[in-house]
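Narrative progress, year one. The postdoctoral researcher (J.K.) led the effort to move from monomer predictions toward full complexes, under supervision of the PI. The following entry was the first complex the group processed end to end, covering 309 residues in total.
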Amino acid sequence: MLTPFLTNCQKKRGFSIYNTRRITYISVFIAMATVLSIIERSIVIPGATPGIKLGLANIMTLLSIMMLGSRDAIIIVIARCFLGALAGGNPVSFLFSITGGLLSILVMVTAWKYLKKHVSIVSISMVGAVFHNIGQLLVASVVVHSFSVYIILPVLMISAIVTGYVIGIVTKQLYKSLGNRMI
Amino acid sequence: MKNLNYYILAGLLALVLISFGVSHLVRRQMEEGDLRLEIYANGQLYQKINLSEAASEEIKIINKDGHYNVVEIEKGRARIREADCPNQICVRTGWISQPGQIAVCVPNKFNIEIKGKSSNVDTISY
């Protein structure tokens, strides 16, 4: 399995060890998260409320929380938002993704840290998705100086619960299959 | 402690209910006065148009960075027809006609909202 290897290393030589394997993991995760967020941007669901999206990049975030730990997961989210904005974004979309991303990663990391034994990764994924949308609507209401954007909050939240569930299941299977392959 | 998954799901559903309440409050606050279109640029009210007796027209709003949005207005409805923002979410929102509906263009800091009482019902007889 994946986690014991890293945590043993951390225990033996202190928390801040960065061996080659871990650095490789982090960079592969950043690359995959960036690619997923770029792919996701090109998927347009016709007729859907603006703001609804699948949250594919969240797969990598959840995997990194489980495999690498909270600190690396936060690094990966920040790097992903930055690189995603460089690859065909604009300052406003960067502001959007970084606020939503940071809010959701903080909530998910806290949930993972304190409730790991009682909560499945699917629940954490749903909570993260909901808070991602809340963060984005906060930015939107600040940018346009109006609370009217909160009208779409219920729709966004229901969609976040559904997509968060799907993404959580995908992550769970991915984690299992990675573990079976001893990667 | 036992399995907390159901509690988390219940908490999320409670959040959804709260959000329904919030959106209802915002919507009610908007349903005052005649049916009108309010155009906001940079967060400030740019123009107010009475939709129930509006003639077809197009308004081009250019913000201080040189970016533009074109608003098309017909009787009872409006849309952002054209914009030079990268994601085009505002254009894809399409026509809006009910109070509380909005079309937002975040990159250009521009949005249009419909407020006031809906004129769906022409007359009510008892």
